[in-house]
Every structure is written in structure tokens, then in C-alpha cells.
Specification:
The protein is α/β, with parallel strands linked by helices. It has 2 domains: about 240 residues, 3-Layer(aba) Sandwich (Aldehyde Dehydrogenase, Chain A, domain 1); about 190 residues, Aldehyde Dehydrogenase, Chain A, domain 2 (3-Layer(aba) Sandwich), CATH 3.40.309.10. The protein has 18 helices and 22 strands. The protein has a 7-stranded mixed sheet with strand order 12-15-16-11-10-18-19, with helices on both faces. A 6-stranded mixed sheet has the order 7-6-5-8-9-21, sandwiched between helices. It has a 3-stranded antiparallel sheet with strand order 3-4-22, with no helix packed on it. The protein is globular, with a radius of gyration of 23 Å. The N terminus is likely disordered. This is NAD-dependent succinate-semialdehyde dehydrogenase.
Length: about 500
Amino acid sequence: MTVMQSLTRHLINPERFRHLASVAGPTTPDSTKRFPVFNPSTGELLAELPDMGAEDVTKAIDKAHAAQGHWAGLTARERSDVLWKWHQLILENSDDLAAILTAEMGKPLAEAKSEIAHAAAYLQWYAEEANRIYGETISAPSNDRRLLVIKQPVGVVGAITPWNFPASMVARKISPALAAGCTVILKPAEQTPLIAGAMFVLAQTAGFPEGVLNLIYASEGDAVGRELCSNPKVRKISFTGSTEVGRLLMRQCSDQIKRISFELGGNAPFIVFDDADIDAAVDGAIQAKFRNAGQTCVSANRLYVQSKVYDEFTQKFTERVRGLQVGDGFDPDVAIGPLIDTYALAKIEAHVDDAVRKGAKIECGGVRVGGSGTFFVPTVIKDVVSTMRLAQEETFGPLAPIIRFEDAEQVVREANDTIYGLAAYFYASNLKRVWRVAEALEYGMVGINTGRMSSEAAPFGGIKQSGIGREGSHHGLEDYLEMKYLCMGGL
């Protein structure tokens, strides 16, 4: 039996699974405190993990700092080989990893398997990119000098990952750091720490040296974040989460002018013009809105449809949404799993109530479902206006508000009227319109005639208050490198 098969069997028996932390990471907690991890579909206790605090974080930072010089001193090929082995182990154990992910996060098993494959793709990409860290030579102003630029790792990195993509975000965030020669302390979300622990088991098997990867389990992020931001041995913070927490971490990093990469909140518009292929737009909207039960930072939060095709799109879209089955992610017929917790349920209900009170009409859904778990029926609301909460705030759930618009100038203005600038989508066929709208939308990523655009080969990130920096692509590697200019005289 493989390690992952054993871990998957442990999921059936929470008492046996409690010991995952003791084998998952090199950090041994001082505290005897524990915190629970539950299955959001059933409420079942999956595990109780060590609840680490600031002292544990300091120890992890010290271990990472001690290992930094050795890891950075390896050749790019040596670091690449370990990352490549980790990628292979992830793929070999993908079914078991997906089962762990579905158990603790709730997403349908098919989506979980897709996420594990996506995580492995990031490891593969940066295993290859590790060998492509290039410097440069510069023409010197005199013959007795040589001017060069080299790139070196930033140093110890503190990484904080969210619960909605707890496997792919681990890989996307730390694989470029490892490829660049940085050591890492990872704090996964308290709702979904088990998949990170399982991935770290495989990382140890892949051969990462002691101290290169360090895992922190904690039920509260405040103490962990403060120590990562204030400890001078940590040279960079990489965080994915809410804009509010991002602001706090940014302030805490400012005293040391610490390097940061933040991927924060979104309020993505999804625009359907009257020259669009309506059936394709419906397909894209289903993908962009309901993947992971709408719990994605790039989820379509506001659906703008031009008046001429408003009724046709709404009717076809609603019909498709009515066919989305809600339930436990291990049921092969389920397309929509649970929301992560009761707070998420309360938020989506508040958004629906506010919209209906202000004149919007529910086309389908709008209610909780099931006697246990945190399930909400996929919901379509039409006749939405921009003053409603669901048009102003990120819902993070299976709620699709449809807003009517008249022309391109109006919809671009309304789409940009937000502090966020992560992702946007639009469907159109006129090439002139495609170029003009794509350039006018104030977002870091724009999907044109597609509802999915995430790729390890492309830069992922936002503008305005949706973040700083990029993850994925060769640009993601640059965020973990320092540029050093060398001027050699006396030649």
C-alpha cells in the first residue's frame, strides 16, 4: 500500500488520521493544542491537527534560514530534478490526493482530480523553468570594464494559501520559489490543511533536503502572519486571500520593505454582446460562474448581457443551471458541492434577499438544500441593477446575477467601476470590438470567448486592489529572484 493509499484509508477513521501532521512536515509543534478539520458535506470530523503558534513559526523560519544557503547553492538541474520527482509522485497518487481534497473541501471528485493535475502541471513547469534563470551582459562605457547582471534567490519565503484550491495553490505558490532557490514556510488555510500535508509527505519522498519545505498548521492566521511578516529572516511573503487581509499583511511587511506577491479579491464581470455566439456564451458562463460552486477568485460575479440577446441568454442559461445537481462531492452525478462553511451560506442568502427586496427576480434556486452540510441551490437572478449588494460585493458562491446593458461604452464603464481588477470575461465576434473592449477592461486577466483561462504557462494576477505580482509563467519565477549588477574593472 502506498503512503497516499494509507492516508486515504485513514480518512474513513478520523482517530487514525489525527497523526497526519506528525509525518507531513519537518516542524514539530510545541503546543498540545489541536484544531478540528471537518467535511463540509457531512459535518464529519476528519482530523484534529496541531494548532501551532508564533514559537512554532519562529522555529520553522530558523530551519528554513539554515537550509537556504545549501538549497540555493545546488545547481539549477539538481533543484529541477527534485521538483520533477515531486511532480511525478503527485500524478502517481492523484486519485488518493483528490479523495483527500474532496473530503475536506467538498468540491466534486472530478473537479478535485482536475485540480491535482493542475498542481502537478505547475511543478512540472517550474522544474523546467529552474534551468532558464538567465543573466545578461551589458556593453561597457570603456574597454577596461565588464558589466554583468546575475539573478539570485530572494531568500526565505513565507507562503499563505487559501481553502478554495488547496492543492493547486500550494504548487503554484511554492514551486517557483523552490525553482529559484528559495526555502519556504507554508501556512495552508485552516479549513483545508490535509491536502497540503499529504503533498508534503510526497515532497519528502521526492528528496527535498531538511528545512527546505516547512509546514505550519494553525487554526488562526494572525500570529502566523505577524511572525512571518516581522521576522527579518523571511525575505518575501506570498499570499492569496481577501483584500482586507492583504492590506493588513502589506502594512506588517512595510517596516522591513519586504518583497510581496498578493493575489486578492475579485469582482469579475462576464459580458455577452449581441454579436456573441449565445450557446458558447452560456457554456462559458456555466464554467466561469459555477466551477467549485462559485468559490473561485476569478468567478464571474456580474453577468452583463446586451438588451437584444438578454432574454435569449437568460432563458438558455437558466435552463442549464436548473440541471446542475447539488450534493456530496463523492457522488459522480454531482456538479455543485457544498459551500465551505455557514458564513458563506449566510452571505449568499443576504445577497439574494437584498436583490429581491430591491426588485430583482429569482429565475431558479435561491434556497439552501439538504438537512446537513452547507449546500445552496445554484441560483440565477435577473433584472439586477448595480446598486444591489451582489453587484458590488464578491459573493463567492453559486449565485449568478444578470444585468442588462445597452452599448459597449456603458458596460465597460460599469465593469470597471470597482476597486478590484483580477479577471474579466466577454463574448463577441466583431474583431474591432474584441480589441477595444479587451484593452479597455481594467483587469489583469481577460478571457475572450472562453470561461476558463488559468494555465501554468500564463501569468495569473490582478491590478488595482486585486493584488501585486504574478504567479505562473516565467514571470512568476522573477518574483522570487533578486537582480544583481556586477561591474568588473581593471581588465
